[in-house]
Amino acid sequence: GISWTLPDHPKLPKGKPVAVVVLDGWGEADADQYNCIHVAQTPVMDSLKNGAPEKWRLVKAHGTAVGLPSDDDMGNSEVGHNALGAGRIFAQGAKLVDKALASGKIYEGDGFNYIKESFENGTLHLIGLLSDGGVHSRLDQLQLLLKGASERGAKRIRVHILTDGRDVLDGSSVGFVETLENDLSQLRGKGIDAQIASGGGRMYVTMDRYENDWTVVKRGWDAQVLGEAPYKFKSALEAVKTLRAEPKANDQYLPPFVIVDDSGKAVGPVLDGDAVVTINFRADRMVMLAKALEYADFDKFDRVRVPKIRYAGMLQYDGELKLPNRYLVSPPEIERTSGEYLVKNGIRTFACSETVKFGHVTFFWNGNRSGYFDETKEEYVEIPSDSGITFNVAPKMKALEIAEKARDALLSGKFDQVRVNLPNGDMVGHTGDIEATVVACKAADEAVKMILDAVEQVGGIYLVTADHGNAEDMVKRNKAGKPLLDKSGGIQILTSHTLQPVPVAIGGPGLHPGVKFRTDIQTPGLANVAATVMNLHGFEAPADYETTLIEVADN
Ligand code: 3PG
Ligand code: CO
């Protein structure tokens, strides 16, 4: 069996409360007008950065440092929090799917063989995010799966698309639809009845997360499964172009639509005997649809008609819930996370965020595992997020409320670790609204202040970091770093994450005076944080963890 007992750290004491603060979407970049963190008043984060150089440093938060296929891949919250919590680098969903497609193993597994039974008499439905963002899904993987499934007997295929504009530039949906339409027409040339059946913007249709707003998933269900939507078009290209032309329309929030035939009938509702694959590899925004597709008992909305289908996820999204039961590619096995170790070594843990990031500091932090390790030692608090709005209209979000909970948890003396995620930089950054993102960064900084003040009061330690960049760069740039202009001379707003490194700052009255960042680790990343936090709790990390960022000078 696994030995859960962590060795004592030779120099660092136990018993100091540790606050772990994750600023979502808070990278480090050169100062200019598109760096909202720079533009915003952020005195607390500035003071950490400009304080003792051995207490602040940068770490990698993208690409191979967090288990993504290449260093061209920007970071994201899933892989970032996985790395922060697990202390090791696991090949992540994007990479595992790439491998399974390249080797062909995806077609040999139980998941594919299961859905394949529907190919003879039913339709294969593929539902997911259509872009090359690589955060939740990837277009090239969808293309390969279409090809592979059709070569293995799928005769009737319907694709249900969700337009992006969040992990990729707004407006790019049109090009992705063109590419997909082209592939589907080639399949039709080979005698396969393949077409896009429905669509909608990811933030308005289907891809809600952490049960913030089930009406989002219902809109998707109606279009994808029932074949019903407020807008009907003859083709997806026409749909996306027409809906984008509406005032204030954008890819993230396109309304749901269905594609209809000449008689006005939806071309691809999901029917008894069909197969469904949700093509996203990332869990958080597919779990809700997976539940609607899989659970017999379901009361989140009226499904009206529940077809008898063979359903598989691209990955299994929740190992604890075994959801979905069938999947094409096995997810990374992220086990022995720092959260589990620390709880088993007596560390009483408090974790908190608001709904839209709640699972990040719980589910993702704990290796894509829902629930507590030990209820008697852990408390996870979710502050309800505003729903039905875009966060640029309320950019302070619940930062203050999260900080208050963290403060109270620290002052209560009931917890050894108080862990929070402050979503502002990321959630507002994704809207592309620069002014609002500046307000968001200021609010996050104020929240950090409240938490650090509480750390001060209880004689504790803090570690402040981020999961990936976003708010520090809001413009698309050329290779030389110059902002790219669109056809009309305006800047191209960057709604997505970035490739930038993120800060790690440590301090607090409880920090042993000899602690400083090591200078001998070449390119540390987020995975080095877990061992560091274990040290701050007075433990040595397990031998296979990425090395700690700190050392202790004798003085
Ligand atoms: C989202 O799901 O909102 C974006 O695709 C990625 O953002 P996150 O990785 O910060 O959650
Ligand atoms: Co984000």
Describe the structure.
It is a single chain. The protein has 555 residues and is α/β, with parallel strands linked by helices. It has 2 domains: 18-91 and 333-552, Alkaline Phosphatase, subunit A (3-Layer(aba) Sandwich), CATH 3.40.720; 94-329, BPG-independent phosphoglycerate mutase, domain B (2,3-Bisphosphoglycerate-independent phosphoglycerate mutase, substrate-binding domain, 3-Layer(aba) Sandwich), CATH 3.40.1450. Helix content is 30%, strand content 16%. The chain is built from 17 helices and 17 strands. The protein has helices spanning 36-39, 43-49, 77-86, 93-103, 110-116, 139-151, 173-189, 214-226, 236-244, 287-294, 338-344, 355-358, 360-364, 399-412, 424-429, 434-458, 529-536, and strands at residues 18-23, 56-59, 124-130, 156-163, 193-201, 231-233, 257-259, 275-278, 310-315, 327-329, 349-354, 378-383, 417-422, 461-466, 502-507, 515-517, 550-552. The chain has an 8-stranded mixed sheet, with helices on both faces. It has a 7-stranded mixed sheet with strand order 2-15-14-1-13-11-12, with helices on both faces. It has a two-stranded antiparallel sheet with strand order 16-17. Helix 7 (173-189) links the parallel strand 4 and strand 5 (193-201). The protein binds 3-phosphoglyceric acid and cobalt (II) ion. The site of 3-phosphoglyceric acid has 12 residues, from helix 3. 3-phosphoglyceric acid (3PG) binds at residues 24-25, 76-78, 135-136, 166-167, 285, 426, 430.
